[in-house]
């Protein structure tokens, strides 16, 4: 699924233009990102929780040269699917995801 696919689906379901659907999509993404920055997580009932986690500074390697480099501390976003979303998946896919 791509952004374009989602925008087309939103436009068809809402009976609006693709430009309006794209504006709504962009506002949604901005709201989720803003909430994660401000509160540390965004809980969307029925979909899941986007949660910000701190990553420590660490040592890495340049794959081209093999040279050791320092990677600065930062953040990553983790996603945990809501039960309502997990329940929509076939049982075989749920078992694979648990592994």
Search tags:
single chain; alpha+beta; HU Protein, Chain A; 2 domains; three-stranded antiparallel beta sheet; two-stranded antiparallel ribbon; 4 helices; 46% helix
- Low-confidence stretches are none
How many structural domains are formed by the residues? 2
CATH domain class name of the largest domain: Few Secondary Structures
Quaternary state reads single chain
The geometry reads as: extended
CATH topology type of the largest domain: HU Protein, Chain A
Give the number of DSSP strands.
5
Strand line-up of the largest beta sheet: 1-2-5
How is the biggest beta sheet arranged?
3 strands, antiparallel
How confident is the prediction overall: mean pLDDT? 92
Output the radius of gyration.
19 Å
Taken as a percent bin, the fraction of beta residues is 25-35%
CATH-assigned homologous superfamily of the largest domain: IHF-like DNA-binding proteins
Helix content: 40-55%
Question: What is the tally of helical segments?
Answer: 4
Under the CATH scheme, which architecture of the largest domain would be assigned? Irregular
User: How are helices and strands ordered from N to C?
Assistant: HHEEEEEHH
Q: Could you give the distance between the termini?
A: 24 Å
**Based on helices, strands and strand pairing, what is the structural class?**
alpha+beta
């Amino acid at each position: 699924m791509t952004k374009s696919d989602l925008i087309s689906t939103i436009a068809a379901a809402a009976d609006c233009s693709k430009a309006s659907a794209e504006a709504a999509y962009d506002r949604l993404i901005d709201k989720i990102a803003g909430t994660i920055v401000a509160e540390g997580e965004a809980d969307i009932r029925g979909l899941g929780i986007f949660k910000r986690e701190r990553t420590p500074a660490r040592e890495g390697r340049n794959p081209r040269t093999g040279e050791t480099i320092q990677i600065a501390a930062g953040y990553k976003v983790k996603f945990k699917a809501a039960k309502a979303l997990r329940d929509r998946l076939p049982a075989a896919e749920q078992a694979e995801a648990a592994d």
